[in-house]
Protein backbone atom coordinates (compact mmCIF):
# COMPACT_ATOMS: atom_id res chain seq x y z
CA UNK A 1 0.00 0.00 0.00
CA UNK A 2 2.86 2.36 0.81
CA UNK A 3 4.36 1.78 -2.66
CA UNK A 4 1.01 2.46 -4.32
CA UNK A 5 0.57 5.77 -2.50
CA UNK A 6 4.12 6.77 -3.43
CA UNK A 7 3.37 6.14 -7.13
CA UNK A 8 0.17 8.16 -6.89
CA UNK A 9 1.88 11.13 -5.29
CA UNK A 10 4.57 10.99 -7.97
CA UNK A 11 2.06 10.45 -10.80
CA UNK A 12 4.19 7.46 -11.75
CA UNK A 13 1.91 5.46 -14.05
CA UNK A 14 4.60 2.99 -15.15
CA UNK A 15 5.49 1.87 -11.63
CA UNK A 16 1.86 1.88 -10.52
CA UNK A 17 0.94 -0.36 -13.45
CA UNK A 18 3.73 -2.76 -12.50
CA UNK A 19 2.38 -2.96 -8.96
CA UNK A 20 -1.14 -3.59 -10.27
CA UNK A 21 0.14 -6.32 -12.63
CA UNK A 22 2.01 -7.91 -9.72
CA UNK A 23 -1.13 -7.93 -7.56
CA UNK A 24 -3.17 -9.37 -10.43
CA UNK A 25 -0.58 -12.05 -11.15
CA UNK A 26 -0.62 -13.20 -7.54
CA UNK A 27 -4.42 -12.93 -7.33
CA UNK A 28 -4.16 -10.35 -4.60
CA UNK A 29 -7.45 -8.57 -3.95
CA UNK A 30 -7.40 -5.80 -1.33
CA UNK A 31 -9.97 -6.25 1.41
CA UNK A 32 -11.20 -2.70 0.84
CA UNK A 33 -11.51 -0.69 -2.38
CA UNK A 34 -9.17 2.12 -1.29
CA UNK A 35 -6.01 0.87 -3.04
CA UNK A 36 -7.77 0.02 -6.27
CA UNK A 37 -9.60 3.34 -6.25
CA UNK A 38 -6.30 5.18 -5.91
CA UNK A 39 -4.85 3.23 -8.84
CA UNK A 40 -8.02 3.77 -10.84
CA UNK A 41 -7.81 7.51 -10.23
CA UNK A 42 -4.15 7.59 -11.27
CA UNK A 43 -4.74 5.61 -14.48
CA UNK A 44 -7.63 7.88 -15.42
CA UNK A 45 -5.69 11.01 -14.51
CA UNK A 46 -2.84 9.90 -16.79
CA UNK A 47 -5.28 9.29 -19.63
CA UNK A 48 -4.74 5.52 -19.57
CA UNK A 49 -8.43 4.71 -19.85
CA UNK A 50 -7.99 1.19 -21.18
CA UNK A 51 -5.92 0.34 -18.09
CA UNK A 52 -8.45 2.09 -15.86
CA UNK A 53 -11.34 0.16 -17.40
CA UNK A 54 -9.50 -3.17 -17.14
CA UNK A 55 -8.80 -2.53 -13.47
CA UNK A 56 -12.40 -1.45 -12.86
CA UNK A 57 -13.80 -4.57 -14.54
CA UNK A 58 -11.66 -6.80 -12.34
CA UNK A 59 -12.37 -5.08 -9.02
CA UNK A 60 -14.28 -7.16 -6.49
CA UNK A 61 -15.18 -4.15 -4.33
CA UNK A 62 -16.67 -1.25 -6.30
CA UNK A 63 -18.00 1.75 -4.43
CA UNK A 64 -19.21 5.21 -5.38
CA UNK A 65 -15.63 6.51 -5.66
CA UNK A 66 -14.83 3.79 -8.19
CA UNK A 67 -17.79 4.80 -10.34
CA UNK A 68 -16.92 8.48 -10.09
CA UNK A 69 -13.29 8.01 -11.16
CA UNK A 70 -14.28 6.20 -14.34
CA UNK A 71 -17.25 8.42 -15.15
CA UNK A 72 -15.24 11.59 -14.68
CA UNK A 73 -12.57 10.37 -17.06
CA UNK A 74 -15.01 9.58 -19.82
CA UNK A 75 -16.90 12.83 -19.27
CA UNK A 76 -13.80 15.01 -19.48
CA UNK A 77 -12.86 13.44 -22.80
CA UNK A 78 -16.42 13.60 -24.14
CA UNK A 79 -16.65 9.80 -24.54
CA UNK A 80 -20.42 9.74 -24.28
CA UNK A 81 -20.95 6.15 -25.45
CA UNK A 82 -18.51 4.91 -22.82
CA UNK A 83 -20.33 7.03 -20.24
CA UNK A 84 -23.59 5.40 -21.22
CA UNK A 85 -22.05 1.91 -20.95
CA UNK A 86 -20.83 2.62 -17.42
CA UNK A 87 -24.16 4.13 -16.36
CA UNK A 88 -25.92 1.06 -17.75
CA UNK A 89 -23.83 -1.09 -15.43
CA UNK A 90 -24.79 0.91 -12.36
CA UNK A 91 -27.66 -0.28 -10.19
CA UNK A 92 -30.24 2.32 -11.20
CA UNK A 93 -31.84 3.82 -8.15
CA UNK A 94 -31.61 7.30 -6.75
CA UNK A 95 -29.66 6.32 -3.64
CA UNK A 96 -26.57 5.60 -5.72
CA UNK A 97 -27.08 8.06 -8.59
CA UNK A 98 -27.67 10.99 -6.26
CA UNK A 99 -24.14 10.46 -4.98
CA UNK A 100 -22.57 10.36 -8.43
CA UNK A 101 -20.41 13.41 -9.01
CA UNK A 102 -18.73 13.76 -12.37
CA UNK A 103 -15.61 15.40 -11.01
CA UNK A 104 -14.72 18.61 -12.79
CA UNK A 105 -17.88 18.41 -14.91
CA UNK A 106 -20.67 19.10 -12.43
CA UNK A 107 -21.30 22.49 -14.06
CA UNK A 108 -20.47 21.37 -17.59
CA UNK A 109 -23.80 21.61 -19.40
CA UNK A 110 -22.32 20.05 -22.54
CA UNK A 111 -21.47 16.84 -20.70
CA UNK A 112 -24.87 16.56 -19.02
CA UNK A 113 -26.64 17.33 -22.29
CA UNK A 114 -24.60 14.62 -23.98
CA UNK A 115 -25.66 12.04 -21.38
CA UNK A 116 -29.29 13.14 -21.54
CA UNK A 117 -29.18 13.02 -25.33
CA UNK A 118 -27.79 9.50 -25.46
CA UNK A 119 -30.49 8.08 -23.20
CA UNK A 120 -33.21 10.00 -25.03
CA UNK A 121 -31.89 8.74 -28.37
CA UNK A 122 -32.03 5.12 -27.21
CA UNK A 123 -35.53 5.53 -25.79
CA UNK A 124 -34.52 5.29 -22.12
CA UNK A 125 -36.60 8.32 -21.25
CA UNK A 126 -36.60 7.67 -17.49
CA UNK A 127 -32.83 7.93 -17.24
CA UNK A 128 -32.75 10.81 -19.71
CA UNK A 129 -35.19 12.71 -17.51
CA UNK A 130 -33.19 11.83 -14.39
CA UNK A 131 -30.10 13.54 -15.81
CA UNK A 132 -32.08 16.40 -17.33
CA UNK A 133 -33.65 17.22 -13.96
CA UNK A 134 -30.21 17.26 -12.34
CA UNK A 135 -28.49 19.39 -14.97
CA UNK A 136 -27.43 22.47 -13.04
CA UNK A 137 -27.41 24.95 -15.89
CA UNK A 138 -29.97 23.98 -18.51
CA UNK A 139 -29.83 25.72 -21.87
CA UNK A 140 -32.24 25.53 -24.80
CA UNK A 141 -30.36 22.47 -26.10
CA UNK A 142 -31.10 20.68 -22.81
CA UNK A 143 -34.81 21.29 -23.24
CA UNK A 144 -34.76 20.36 -26.92
CA UNK A 145 -33.12 17.01 -26.18
CA UNK A 146 -35.73 16.14 -23.59
CA UNK A 147 -38.66 17.31 -25.71
CA UNK A 148 -37.29 15.31 -28.64
CA UNK A 149 -37.07 12.20 -26.46
CA UNK A 150 -40.72 12.45 -25.47
CA UNK A 151 -41.82 13.12 -29.05
CA UNK A 152 -40.03 10.01 -30.32
CA UNK A 153 -41.98 7.94 -27.80
CA UNK A 154 -45.24 9.63 -28.74
CA UNK A 155 -45.61 11.17 -25.28
CA UNK A 156 -46.91 14.52 -26.48
CA UNK A 157 -48.39 15.47 -23.11
CA UNK A 158 -44.93 15.47 -21.53
CA UNK A 159 -43.61 17.26 -24.57
CA UNK A 160 -46.03 20.16 -24.17
CA UNK A 161 -45.57 20.22 -20.39
CA UNK A 162 -41.86 20.86 -20.91
CA UNK A 163 -42.57 23.41 -23.61
CA UNK A 164 -44.90 25.32 -21.28
CA UNK A 165 -42.39 25.07 -18.45
CA UNK A 166 -39.79 26.69 -20.70
CA UNK A 167 -42.10 29.66 -21.14
CA UNK A 168 -42.78 29.89 -17.39
CA UNK A 169 -39.03 30.02 -16.82
CA UNK A 170 -38.83 32.82 -19.38
CA UNK A 171 -36.74 30.67 -21.71
CA UNK A 172 -37.34 31.50 -25.35
CA UNK A 173 -38.08 28.36 -27.38
CA UNK A 174 -35.91 28.43 -30.48
CA UNK A 175 -36.47 27.24 -34.01
CA UNK A 176 -35.26 23.73 -33.11
CA UNK A 177 -37.85 23.47 -30.36
CA UNK A 178 -40.55 24.38 -32.84
CA UNK A 179 -39.52 21.95 -35.54
CA UNK A 180 -38.10 19.13 -33.44
CA UNK A 181 -41.19 16.98 -33.77
CA UNK A 182 -41.47 14.57 -36.63
CA UNK A 183 -45.18 15.18 -36.25
CA UNK A 184 -45.38 18.49 -38.03
CA UNK A 185 -48.76 19.36 -36.49
CA UNK A 186 -47.22 19.20 -33.03
CA UNK A 187 -44.44 21.43 -34.27
CA UNK A 188 -47.01 23.89 -35.60
CA UNK A 189 -48.75 24.04 -32.21
CA UNK A 190 -45.43 24.81 -30.56
CA UNK A 191 -44.65 27.35 -33.26
CA UNK A 192 -47.94 29.12 -32.58
CA UNK A 193 -47.01 29.43 -28.90
CA UNK A 194 -43.84 31.42 -29.64
CA UNK A 195 -44.75 35.10 -29.03
CA UNK A 196 -42.05 36.78 -31.11
CA UNK A 197 -41.10 34.75 -34.14
CA UNK A 198 -37.91 35.71 -35.93
CA UNK A 199 -36.96 34.77 -39.49
CA UNK A 200 -35.14 31.64 -38.27
CA UNK A 201 -38.26 30.41 -36.49
CA UNK A 202 -40.45 30.99 -39.55
CA UNK A 203 -37.91 29.34 -41.82
CA UNK A 204 -37.64 26.21 -39.69
CA UNK A 205 -41.41 25.76 -39.68
CA UNK A 206 -41.65 26.30 -43.43
CA UNK A 207 -38.80 23.84 -44.02
CA UNK A 208 -40.57 21.40 -41.69
CA UNK A 209 -43.66 21.53 -43.86
CA UNK A 210 -41.64 21.21 -47.07
CA UNK A 211 -39.72 18.20 -45.76
CA UNK A 212 -42.94 16.48 -44.68
CA UNK A 213 -44.57 16.87 -48.11
CA UNK A 214 -46.87 19.62 -46.86
CA UNK A 215 -46.08 22.04 -49.68
CA UNK A 216 -49.45 23.82 -49.55
CA UNK A 217 -48.97 24.54 -45.84
CA UNK A 218 -45.44 25.77 -46.54
CA UNK A 219 -46.77 28.27 -49.09
CA UNK A 220 -49.56 29.46 -46.79
CA UNK A 221 -47.14 29.93 -43.92
CA UNK A 222 -44.80 31.85 -46.20
CA UNK A 223 -47.68 34.22 -46.93
CA UNK A 224 -48.28 34.67 -43.20
CA UNK A 225 -44.58 35.38 -42.75
CA UNK A 226 -44.66 38.17 -45.30
CA UNK A 227 -47.80 39.66 -43.76
CA UNK A 228 -46.00 39.59 -40.41
CA UNK A 229 -43.36 41.91 -41.86
CA UNK A 230 -40.58 39.37 -41.38
CA UNK A 231 -37.91 39.32 -44.06
CA UNK A 232 -37.24 35.82 -45.47
CA UNK A 233 -33.71 34.63 -46.01
CA UNK A 234 -32.24 32.42 -48.73
CA UNK A 235 -33.21 29.23 -46.85
CA UNK A 236 -36.84 30.33 -46.61
CA UNK A 237 -36.98 31.28 -50.28
CA UNK A 238 -35.30 28.10 -51.51
CA UNK A 239 -37.68 25.91 -49.45
CA UNK A 240 -40.74 27.78 -50.73
CA UNK A 241 -39.56 27.64 -54.34
CA UNK A 242 -38.85 23.92 -53.96
CA UNK A 243 -42.41 23.48 -52.68
CA UNK A 244 -43.71 25.31 -55.76
CA UNK A 245 -41.62 23.01 -57.95
CA UNK A 246 -43.01 19.89 -56.29
CA UNK A 247 -46.54 21.21 -56.86
CA UNK A 248 -45.61 22.29 -60.40
CA UNK A 249 -47.25 25.59 -59.45
CA UNK A 250 -45.80 28.11 -61.87
CA UNK A 251 -47.98 31.03 -60.70
CA UNK A 252 -46.90 30.66 -57.05
CA UNK A 253 -43.29 30.25 -58.10
CA UNK A 254 -43.38 33.41 -60.18
CA UNK A 255 -44.84 35.35 -57.25
CA UNK A 256 -41.99 34.15 -55.02
CA UNK A 257 -39.47 34.97 -57.75
CA UNK A 258 -40.93 38.47 -57.90
CA UNK A 259 -40.62 38.80 -54.12
CA UNK A 260 -36.97 37.81 -54.40
CA UNK A 261 -36.39 40.67 -56.84
CA UNK A 262 -38.48 43.28 -54.95
CA UNK A 263 -36.93 42.43 -51.57
CA UNK A 264 -33.42 42.27 -53.04
CA UNK A 265 -32.79 38.82 -51.62
CA UNK A 266 -29.37 37.63 -52.72
CA UNK A 267 -29.47 35.26 -55.67
CA UNK A 268 -27.38 32.67 -53.91
CA UNK A 269 -26.61 29.25 -55.30
CA UNK A 270 -29.41 27.84 -53.15
CA UNK A 271 -32.14 30.20 -54.42
CA UNK A 272 -31.00 30.17 -58.05
CA UNK A 273 -30.83 26.36 -58.15
CA UNK A 274 -34.37 26.11 -56.75
CA UNK A 275 -35.67 28.61 -59.34
CA UNK A 276 -33.95 26.80 -62.19
CA UNK A 277 -35.52 23.55 -61.00
CA UNK A 278 -38.96 25.18 -60.78
CA UNK A 279 -38.90 26.68 -64.27
CA UNK A 280 -37.50 23.50 -65.81
CA UNK A 281 -40.28 21.41 -64.27
CA UNK A 282 -42.85 23.92 -65.52
CA UNK A 283 -41.22 23.96 -69.00
CA UNK A 284 -40.44 27.69 -68.86
CA UNK A 285 -36.97 27.41 -70.31
CA UNK A 286 -36.41 31.16 -70.86
CA UNK A 287 -36.78 31.93 -67.12
CA UNK A 288 -34.76 28.85 -66.27
CA UNK A 289 -31.89 30.17 -68.42
CA UNK A 290 -32.31 33.66 -66.94
CA UNK A 291 -31.83 32.36 -63.41
CA UNK A 292 -29.08 30.04 -64.54
CA UNK A 293 -27.25 33.05 -65.94
CA UNK A 294 -27.41 34.91 -62.60
CA UNK A 295 -25.75 32.10 -60.69
CA UNK A 296 -22.31 33.13 -59.42
CA UNK A 297 -21.18 29.50 -59.28
CA UNK A 298 -22.56 26.49 -61.11
CA UNK A 299 -22.32 22.84 -60.23
CA UNK A 300 -23.11 19.56 -62.00
CA UNK A 301 -26.68 19.51 -60.63
CA UNK A 302 -27.63 22.90 -62.09
TrEMBL record:
This is Pentatricopeptide repeat-containing protein. GO terms for molecular function: RNA binding. PPR repeats lie at residues 63-93, 139-173, 198-232. Keywords: Repeat. GO terms for biological process: RNA modification. InterPro entries: PPR_At4g14850-like_plant (IPR046960), PPR_rpt (IPR002885), TPR-like_helical_dom_sf (IPR011990). PANTHER family: PENTATRICOPEPTIDE REPEAT-CONTAINING PROTEIN (PTHR47926). It comes from Arachis hypogaea (Peanut). It holds the Pfam family PPR.
Amino acid sequence: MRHVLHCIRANDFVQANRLQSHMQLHLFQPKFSFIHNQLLHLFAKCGKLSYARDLFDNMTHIDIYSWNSLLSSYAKLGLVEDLRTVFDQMPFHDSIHERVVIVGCADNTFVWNAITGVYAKYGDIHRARWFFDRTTYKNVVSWNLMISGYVKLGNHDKCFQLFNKMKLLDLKPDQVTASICRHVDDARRMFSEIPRKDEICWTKMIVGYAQNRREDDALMLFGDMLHGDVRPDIYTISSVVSSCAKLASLCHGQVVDGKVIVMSVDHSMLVSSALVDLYCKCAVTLDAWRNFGTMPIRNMIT
